[in-house]
Amino acid sequence: MKKTIALLLVLLMVLVQGLPVLAEPVTITYAHFSGSGAQEETLKKMIEVFEEKNPDIKVDLQITGFQDYFIKLATTVGGGNAPDVFEMNMENYLSYMLRDACADLTGLVNTENYSAGTLEAVSSDGKLYAVPMSFSTCILIYNKALFDEAGIAYPNDEWTWADIQTAAEAIKALGDDIWGVFQPITYNEFYKSVKGNGGSLLNEDYTAFTANSPENIAVLEAMLKRVRGENHVQPTAEEMAGRGDWDMFTEGKLGMIITGIWAFPTFTEKCDFDWDIVVEPGYDKKSTFFFANVNCVSPSSEKKEAAAKFADAMGSDPDIVQLRLDASWELPTIADQSKLTQYLEVTPPANRSAVFDSMDYAAAPPALKEAGAASEIINDVLSTLEMNDVSAEEALNDIQSQLDDADLL
Amino acid sequence: MYIPNSNEKRKAITIFLLPSIIGVIGFCLLPILASAVFSLMDYDLLMPMNTMKFVGLENYTRILNGKELPAVIKHTFTYLVLYLPMILLTSVGEALILNKSFKGRGVFKTICYTPVITSWVAAAVVWQWVLNGKYGLLNQMLSMIGITGPAWLNSKQWAMPGIVIAAIWKDTGYYALMVLAALKSIDKTCYEAAEIDGASGFKKLTAITLPLISPTLFLLIVINIIYGLQVFDSVLIMTNGGPGGATTVFLERIYKYAFKQYKMGIASAYSWILFALILIFTAIQFKLQRKWVNYDV
Hints:
The complex is a heterodimer of chains A (about 400) and B (about 300). Chain A has about 400 residues and is α/β, with parallel strands linked by helices.
């Protein structure tokens, strides 16, 4: 009798403890930026798919536009109200991870579903700090009509920046407001380009900046040559006069442009001329961007397991991946490359495989806790160069001394 | 100050005041005190509070010894030097027009006041278009009289004047209203007496109108210097501190340090440096006002 009562009591305890779990699903908050605007419906469908498959987890979606997202997120993290799961781009992921603002997800995610390169990008010391979700890159897009008019051959994957300069000069000769090429002179373009010339912003063990190395100076000289002098081939901000680089390309005023693959839908819709893409040129060798959006879990989250499960599904659940592919919303970071063939079938551009070829040359941004401050110092100097005649060497010496003074390492 | 003797009344007053006192303490006084403490700390917004480190005056010395502060002060003062005389001129001018009775005065008043109630975000976006170097309205108008306008917001020299033009457009209506109120309070007999003495219109303006509205003009100068040192929304939206850092100003720096670089310590120290600057300026003005402000009437 006593045994039966004891057994019943144990059963009752299990039931009482188990009941609330059965009755009330866990709600996790998810902060997100890349779906704001055009892909909001796709994102909501993805979350519906996840909730259907996981009835015990509800997702409270908080979408913010890219402009305000990181400020809002920093404020919530600083105020101790971080969302359970939050989307990050690569640069910000690094500065959060290095501040211990991303939870260790090792063992909570099925890593075999993700491509090795993307996993490496979100791991540090063998621990996983984020779940990859999507990626994109930049390529060289060119206006075939302007190349035909100038009577020169189309770019190919073998081209270096020297070839681009020659072609750009031929295209510039076509008219006053026709320009050869456009590559912004910014921190991002700079750190990427110098890697293609054997240079870098920091030494290998991240103990010193190497902004004014000869390799870096040579790259900046080439960039400045495009915007300076009487026959410069790239429009300056004054010459663009408020027109965006995309506007100038779709209006047929730019021969070549270095920009992201997310330009494809707009260019397809707006360009009334033929255009195609190639892997972007390098100097000594090629170097391209690797832009990835990943999902992180807050270290202060009390629902870490549900949060990790959701982040994992957003990156690799087959139905969610399919929704992403159907919407042409960047590219999924999955290991199974065969699923990506669907992406290659859409034209223009005809040479879509250049997008995947670009991945072979991907250069990650410097993994620097103070990357934001470093990029501001560098951008401040770089953005003035098309307006003055400071030499590349002087500018990089200035950047180097400012970086040294700023105590960022 | 009126303090009632009965306890009942005092209690009632306290209860009525409580909501706003809590608001002021919670959202103004405490954050101000906190920022004073943070300015002595190495405090990273993204890191847990317990990793905060006391660094003494290091944040202040870093700002005061850096190359950035002189540039920020220069830009802020360029803004003030351009803005202050212009806003005084336009607001007094507009008020003098509004003080006359003419047909369509109500419509004119509405047009003048509309920019004031427009949000800076919307206004700045429109002004970015007006100031566009190639297609902008302003340069189109200048080209009609044979002037080739600059690239305004894309040019290092002209970006700040561009912001000032937008700010004048936006603020004139508000200050004109303050000047108008002062004009209305001038006793008409002063003008009648002057007319009998044969004073010209210009003489009446310089000898009667301006001295009698000098307390209002003083107020305008004081608040515009305080607001001018804190110029922010227009700069952030129209140039974001660019091109090439040519329009970096105090609040823009504070905002960027705090929310882009997560350096709360530096941002707090910057705020206190700005506070000191505003305090000094206001004190100087109160000293100087005895020489020209007329409180006699």
